[in-house]
């Protein structure tokens, strides 16, 4: 009897989230308002550092754009990031007319390789954008050291990294210029669409807050009088429409409260996969350093060299068994826009290229049962002739 289809990803939305959304709808305040403010305050509290400003935005892409804009990235500048990421990480650099320098990954962690970053620095380089791939922290001590020595800004793409720690510190508190989280539907917590820009830099926060909503500022008035009338604002720049709605924030408030428990369940599911897949011709996902948290946004399996079937065949076999999976990512150097704009060749990114050819992401989400994991692992085992 064919089993029910097991999707690649599903959000876990509970009664508390639903009740909060209903409350928001009934309140009459459906766009950015009190719930968004509360979500931002809760987010700063979650990260545990009151010196951090958390700015809710309608996507991580928007947050990354605002962070780079506030840092003054523009035409003539170069920003270094990993080729092994989603296009959003890099596209925001092009929004600002700056150029992207893609570099290879460390094959052990699938994260950006600090040595490749250092080799890619030119006099035009202004910033680094590490991605905490799959929820495993990038080598932030090495990257922050490179940035300090070369006078570069650092904006972390933490779309996969809630909660992730590096040297025992939560991503978001590591000392970069800004960190951006995603609450897209398949991320570790979700608001449908949404994101959070976190920074310790008051100037960056001030600029991003203004640019998040049309370049509108009420600060200018304060210079002349203590009391700003509620109708008064000034437009100080052609800003963006990147604010989060209270409807989305209502979800976020309750998802955030569950983030720790979600992460613990993901750890369990990943450990169960590890156990059930042991002995097969595969590379299991890299582990975090002792004592560190891995957010386990993705469970990325790589076929070993000499595995009996190719990655594409394995994905077909899983689909035939009613199991959804995915590939993270088709590296940017293979995508027509990035490849053609910068004349990129696969040979420049041997580790990303090899990983891409051998990898697939198995379903991993909190609504999965242990039996679901065992079913996926059994399907992988059958396909590999184990
Ligand atoms: C999901 C994702 C983004 C974009 O997040 P949005 O909230 O959808 O804009 C950026 N970078 C990475 C690595 C992602 O996985």
Cα shape: globular
Q: How is the main sheet built?
A: 7 strands, mixed
How many strands appear in the DSSP assignment?
A: 14
Order of helices and strands: HHEHEHEHEHEEEEEHEHEHHEEHHHEH
| Strand arrangement, major sheet | 1-9-8-5-4-2-3
Return the domain count.
Answer: 2
Mean model confidence by pLDDT: 96
List low-pLDDT spans: none
Name of the top-level CATH class of the largest domain: Alpha Beta
Distance between the termini: 22 Å
- The helix content is 25-40%
CATH fold call of the largest domain: Aspartate Aminotransferase, domain 2
**Which oligomeric state applies?**
single chain
Helix and strand composition category = alpha/beta
Describe this structure in words.
- It is a single chain.
- The two termini are 22 Å apart.
- This protein has helices at residues 15-27, 34-47, 60-70, 87-95, 114-120, 140-150, 202-212, 219-222, 246-257, 259-277, 311-320, 336-342, 350-358, 370-383; strands spanning 53-57, 78-82, 99-103, 125-129, 153-157, 165-166, 169-170, 178-182, 195-199, 216-217, 234-235, 282-283, 299-303, 359-362.
- The mean pLDDT is 96.
- It is globular, with a radius of gyration of 22 Å.
- The chain contains 14 helices and 14 strands.
- It folds into 2 domains: 15-104 and 111-257, Type I PLP-dependent aspartate aminotransferase-like (Major domain) (Aspartate Aminotransferase, domain 2); 259-383, Aspartate Aminotransferase, domain 1 (Alpha-Beta Complex).
- Helix 1 (15-27) packs antiparallel against helix 9 (246-257).
- The protein is an alpha/beta fold.
- Residues 59-61, 85-86, 88-89, 131, 157, 159-160, 182, 184, 195 line the site of pyridoxal-5'-phosphate.
């Amino acid at each position: 009897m064919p089993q029910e289809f097991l999707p690649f990803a599903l959000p876990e939305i509970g009664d508390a989230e639903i009740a909060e959304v209903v409350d928001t709808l009934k309140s009459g305040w459906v766009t950015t308002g009190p719930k968004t403010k509360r979500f931002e305050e809760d987010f700063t509290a979650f990260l545990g550092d009151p010196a951090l400003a958390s700015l809710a935005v309608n996507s991580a892409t928007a947050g990354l754009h605002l962070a780079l804009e506030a840092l003054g990235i523009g035409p003539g500048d170069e920003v270094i990031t990993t080729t092994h990421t989603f296009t959003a990480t890099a596209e925001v650099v092009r929004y600002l007319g700056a150029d992207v320098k893609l570099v290879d990954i460390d094959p052990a962690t699938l994260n950006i390789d600090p040595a490749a970053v250092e080799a890619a620095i030119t006099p035009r380089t202004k910033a680094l954008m590490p991605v905490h791939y799959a929820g495993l922290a990038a080598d932030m001590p090495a990257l922050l050291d490179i940035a300090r020595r070369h006078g570069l800004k650092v904006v972390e793409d933490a779309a996969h990294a809630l909660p992730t720690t590096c040297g025992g510190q939560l991503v978001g508190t590591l000392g970069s210029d800004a960190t951006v989280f995603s609450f897209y539907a398949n991320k570790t917590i979700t608001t449908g669409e949404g994101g959070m820009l976190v920074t310790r830099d008051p100037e960056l926060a001030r600029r991003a807050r203004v640019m998040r909503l049309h370049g509108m500022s009420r600060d200018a008035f304060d210079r002349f009088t203590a009391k700003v009338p509620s109708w008064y604002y000034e437009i100080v720049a052609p800003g963006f429409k990147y604010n989060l709605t209270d409807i989305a924030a209502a979800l976020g408030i309750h998802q955030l409260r569950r983030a720790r428990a979600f992460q613990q369940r993901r750890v369990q599911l990943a450990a169960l996969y590890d156990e059930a897949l042991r002995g097969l011709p595969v590379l299991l996902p890299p582990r975090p350093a002792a004592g560190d948290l891995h957010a386990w946004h993705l469970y990325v399996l790589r076929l070993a060299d000499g595995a009996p079937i190719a990655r594409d065949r394995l994905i077909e076999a899983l689909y035939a068994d009613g199991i959804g999976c995915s590939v993270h990512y088709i590296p940017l150097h293979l995508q027509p826009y990035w490849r053609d704009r910068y004349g990129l060749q696969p040979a420049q990114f041997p580790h990303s290229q090899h990983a891409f050819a051998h990898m697939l992401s198995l379903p991993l989400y909190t609504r999965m049962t242990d039996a679901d994991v065992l079913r996926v692992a059994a399907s992988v085992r059958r396909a590999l002739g184990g």
